[in-house]
Amino acid sequence: MKRVMFALALALFGLWGMAGLSAPAWAEGGTPAVASLRVPGATDDRDLPWASDGEANVPYVFHDPAHEGRMTGFEYDLMQTISARMGRHGRFVQNGWDGLIPGLSRDLYALVIDGIEMTPEHKAAVLFSRPYYVTVDRIVLRNDEKGLDTLDALKGHVVGTIKSTAAERLLLDHDPANVRSYDEETNLFSDLKNGRLDAILIDEPIALYYRSDDLKLVGPPIGRVAYGIAFPKNNPGLRDAVDSVLGDLMSDGTLHQILARWNLWTPQMADYTGDQTLSTVQPTAWVDYRQTMERMSGSSVQAMVHRYVSFLPLIGSGALMTLGVSALAMVLAVAMGLVLALARAYGVAPLRWLAGLYVEIVRGTPLLIQVLFIFYGLPAFGLRLSPFAAGVLSLGLNYAAYEAENYRAGLLSVPRGQMEAAIALNMTHMQALRLVIVPQAFRTVVPVMTNDFIALLKDSSLVSVITLTELSQTYIRLSSTYYDYIGTGLMVGLAYLLVGLPFVRLARMAEKRMGRVVAKGHH
Fold first, then answer.
1. What order do you get walking across the sheet with 230-231 strand by strand?
2. In this structure, are residues 139 and 277 in contact, taking their beta carbons and an 8 Å threshold?
3. Which residues form the ABC transmembrane type-1 domain (predicted)?
4. Distance (Å, rounded) from C-alpha 69 to C-alpha 72?
5. Distance between CA atoms of 178 and 400, rounded to whole angstroms?
């Protein structure tokens, strides 16, 4: 779904910035002044923030499997080189595929580079640089398959590809009934290996890096795909500056060298750039990646132990992020839920109506929509929140509605005579609520509140759509990198269990303690 959402985001973004597509500086022979550039998201005059989805994004921008905390990829190397040529420091910003263009619209970063195809639909939504990479689609088969080496030969066979790509459009034009579209490359290749697909049609760089020894590339190149760097439509100056640098990288052979290191220099790129020189650059990045994957993905006990030990820092970091977001969100949910419950149970009519309206609206809309609205929608009203703050706020506001109903049920479960007795003892209405009613109601809802916190821990996975890397996102990255869904899943599941268990124990202790206090009060 994320590539479909990305296409929708592009369409909406095109409506947001109808400033028109001006001619790039490289087409006019001009070179924009770097000092005068508008660079959204920059922290100083040397910062150049750029975004990509670094999760399972080989060979574009991805986490180095040898050092998971380090980013790498041919687009990463390209952006570091472009930044240096512009006299700036390139700063990578992680964002999910479907959030890249919305993040561009709210000035979180200056540009996006993520293998975005320069289709007419995409060009209508954003400004593009000149293509930095031109490639083709290729057919991938299992080694035991034969004959399926052309588009016509694929008719009647189940063929997989990635959603919202040129390859998907080609397949839908030829044989729409047998096309299977995927969000992630790893799932696509896994299904081919497992026999759920007869073939794959996909961009050649992806085919090259995801193909294993039991798969093969067949047939001639198909079609033409061009990747461009995306900019907001209202910032042609920065686009022109990057275009100028790209032109220099093509003419002086630097782009050739970067691509050759990743084994991605092709006849198509030679024809496009006019660089027909024979490369002497060794594909060191390609070789390092293959060797690392062979070592890390091995089935021997030593390889598995090494792999899982290397996962621990990432899973620990994801667990801390999950715990931090969830705990703060639950504090907000408890406090706001109590206020809403008191308003509905004891407030005046307008307050009861407003609290009820809030509860029904929040419970009646998906949490994911609320997360996206708070992070990407509120900036339109001048309220810009960090990803962490937006995650805490969205989860807290959502769960406050559910906590409010729990607390209201707890308040209503307290006998009316308790309030009357408190008033008779000369307490004010607020004192009676604070000292008599709420403590008894709170004890009733403690078990439910504990269950809600466990649910919130799991729902915190949704904040990954606003660039936060928590446990579930860590699982997606590691499992898709190493094709290891079982071992990685067990480790992440154990992390969730370890994070949640202490709170379950604390809740039981609090429940027993409150039970003893209430029992003494009755005597």
1. 89-94, 47-52, 111-112, 230-231, 127-128
2. no
3. 319-507
4. 10
5. 45
Apex 75 CA angle, 242 and 189, nearest 5:
145
- The Cα 393–Cα 383 span in angstroms is 13
Predicted local confidence at residue 513, as pLDDT: 66
First-to-final CA distance of the chain: 60
Surface-to-core class of residue 439, CB atoms within 10 Å of its CB (0-12 exposed, 13-18 middle, 19+ buried) = middle
Residue type present at position 101: I
Q: Are strands 215-227 and 230-231 parallel, antiparallel or unpaired?
A: unpaired
**What are the mean pLDDT values of the chain's consecutive 10-residue runs (523 residues total)?**
48 43 42 71 93 88 85 96 96 86 87 92 90 96 92 93 88 91 87 93 94 91 94 94 96 96 95 90 94 76 80 88 93 92 86 93 92 86 86 95 85 72 76 75 74 87 81 80 81 89 73 57 48
The β-bridge relationship of strands 133-142 and 215-227 is: antiparallel
Closest residue by Cα to residue 315 from 510, 476, 459: 476
Locate 151 and state its tokens.
Answer: 């588009």
Of 288, 234, 279, 232, the closest CA to residue 256 belongs to 279
Amino acid at 259: L
